[in-house]
């Protein structure tokens, strides 16, 4: 797929981020000046930071669930609902 073209033929979802990065890169004396635009473009393409945040939230939720289960004597977080009690 060529840069700038989405799967339906229109502009791609990350094309505006690419344009920002390319414009900065063309005007910059030092490529490091465009690091923020590059990171925005990469995040749009691959969602690495978003996935990392989701994993962190899931790990914290799991940790809290285990702590609640331990405090409830092994009953579990959903033990108050019918059908979920051990």
From TrEMBL:
Its main location: mitochondrion. InterPro entries: NADH_UbQ_OxRdtase_FeS-su5 (IPR019342). Accessory subunit of the mitochondrial membrane respiratory chain NADH dehydrogenase (Complex I), that is believed not to be involved in catalysis. Complex I functions in the transfer of electrons from NADH to the respiratory chain. The immediate electron acceptor for the enzyme is believed to be ubiquinone. It is found in: Mitochondrion inner membrane; Mitochondrion intermembrane space. Keywords: Disulfide bond, Electron transport, Membrane, Mitochondrion, Mitochondrion inner membrane, Respiratory chain, Transport. CDD domains: NDUFS5-like. One of its GO terms (biological process) is mitochondrial respiratory chain complex I assembly. It comes from Chytriomyces confervae. This is NADH dehydrogenase [ubiquinone] iron-sulfur protein 5. One of its GO terms (cellular component) is mitochondrial intermembrane space. Disulfide bonds join 14-44, 24-34. It is a peripheral membrane protein. Belongs to the complex I NDUFS5 subunit family. Mammalian complex I is composed of 45 different subunits. This is a component of the iron-sulfur (IP) fragment of the enzyme. The lineage of its organism: Eukaryota, Fungi, Fungi incertae sedis, Chytridiomycota, Chytridiomycota incertae sedis.
């Amino acid at each position: 797929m060529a840069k700038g073209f989405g799967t339906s033929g229109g502009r791609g979802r990350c094309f505006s981020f690419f344009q920002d990065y390319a414009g900065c890169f063309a005007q910059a004396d030092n490529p490091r000046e465009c690091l923020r635009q590059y990171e925005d473009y990469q995040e749009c393409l691959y969602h690495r930071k978003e996935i990392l945040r989701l994993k962190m939230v899931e790990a914290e939720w799991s940790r809290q669930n285990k702590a609640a289960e331990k405090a409830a004597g092994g009953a579990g977080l959903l033990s108050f609902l019918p059908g979920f009690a051990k």
